[in-house]
């Protein structure tokens, strides 16, 4: 019979082998499950990759076809547009001489119509003028005849009426008095303005010829005392040439500022160089 130690050892080895076998089986199952899970994940990833790749590929193919279609459409539109432009240009070039000829013919037609209308108007103008002139003269005679008959009838009706004669007489007398009054007023106004203008001119002439030269601020009495080459002051020289003494007084401003030569050289009408007033008369002042 086996002893207890051998049985214990055998039992321990059996337990150890059983546990290792169980672990192997468990780990093998777990590994198999993990492998299956990884295989499923890999298959899923491959399917997703295939789906996305096919989708992108199909999208690229669709975009390519769209680009090709758009290119073909653009090329066809551009070719049609260019062809239409070429046809239009060719038609315009071909049609230009015909349109020019048509325009020339239309202008010639309008010119002929205008000349014909002008000639017809000129030919019909004298008869129309004579016709309207005769009609106007006849109408004037008719109006004059009607007016004369009307006046004659009214005079015949009221010839024996004393009030009518008095009214006519008063009307004639009143019109005559009004005409006389208007002419008298016009004559008085005319004589008034004539008197005013002549008196103003005569007053200016009288003032220019009878001025006493009492207030001459610019006139200085100098005595030469035997000196031939004396020098004039700046205020005593002509303000135009500054070479000769002032010897001309301008009216009505009474400025003594010019010499005789400068007065003759200045343009007419003469204006005073100081105040720019129009000079009506000159007075020579001898210093």
From TrEMBL:
<dbReference type="InterPro" id="IPR001841">
    <property type="entry name" value="Znf_RING"/>
</dbReference>
<keyword id="KW-1133">Transmembrane helix</keyword>
<keyword id="KW-0863">Zinc-finger</keyword>
<dbReference type="InterPro" id="IPR013083">
    <property type="entry name" value="Znf_RING/FYVE/PHD"/>
</dbReference>
<protein>
    <submittedName>
        <fullName>Uncharacterized protein LOC107216960</fullName>
    </submittedName>
</protein>
<keyword id="KW-0472">Membrane</keyword>
<feature type="transmembrane region" description="Helical">
    <location>
        <begin position="171"/>
        <end position="193"/>
    </location>
</feature>
<feature type="transmembrane region" description="Helical">
    <location>
        <begin position="112"/>
        <end position="134"/>
    </location>
</feature>
<dbReference type="GO" id="GO:0004842">
    <property type="term" value="F:ubiquitin-protein transferase activity"/>
</dbReference>
<dbReference type="Pfam" id="PF13920">
    <property type="entry name" value="zf-C3HC4_3"/>
</dbReference>
<feature type="domain" description="RING-type">
    <location>
        <begin position="238"/>
        <end position="276"/>
    </location>
</feature>
<dbReference type="InterPro" id="IPR051652">
    <property type="entry name" value="MDM2_MDM4_MUL1"/>
</dbReference>
<dbReference type="GO" id="GO:0008270">
    <property type="term" value="F:zinc ion binding"/>
</dbReference>
<keyword id="KW-0862">Zinc</keyword>
<feature type="transmembrane region" description="Helical">
    <location>
        <begin position="83"/>
        <end position="105"/>
    </location>
</feature>
<keyword id="KW-0812">Transmembrane</keyword>
<dbReference type="GO" id="GO:0016567">
    <property type="term" value="P:protein ubiquitination"/>
</dbReference>
<keyword id="KW-0479">Metal-binding</keyword>
